[in-house]
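Review form for a predicted model. The reviewer records the input and the model, then writes brief findings.
Reviewer: anonymous (R2)
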Amino acid sequence: MGAYQQLRKAFEEAGNEPDAADFYYGEMEMRRHDRSRPRAERRLLWLYWLVSGYGLRASRALSWLVAAMGVTLLAMMLLGLPNDSPDPQTTGTYSAGTVKAVTKTPDPSLTLPWRKRLTVDRAEKGALVVVNSVVFRSSGQNLTLPGTVIEMASRIGEPVLLGLAALAVRSRVKR
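Model under review:
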């Protein structure tokens, strides 16, 4: 591993970024396979390799991003989107020149049979949630409790994959 690290540094100092990246990849592979390293570190390196090729493979990170978005969309359609948008009910009273209005919005519920959850309309709503989650935004969509959890998880995981893809593209352009 030390040889890869020294060669990488030498190539970086010489301004030869493409070959330095090859030695970085080799250095990371040696670290990943080194049995003297803690198991947790090796597993983290394995995950980093699997997801983005150590930040050098944009296609791998983008493939994982598209797959994650697909899984999120399917989960939203099956578990996250309510039957329909909750209809707020406003009631009010008027007494002695004062109006008091109270608006209650029922909790979103999902009671549709499984076969009716996969529709084009629900796919469009789910796609809005998925695209917004990639850029850390809340969709503003009413979601069931599982849908809220799915959206929060995707708002963490999917931007990480996008960032790894951007890192890989940056390293290619930098060369």
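Findings: Residues 93 and 100 are 5 Å apart (CA to CA).
Further findings: The chain has two domains: 1-54, 60-86+109-165.
Recommendation: see findings above.
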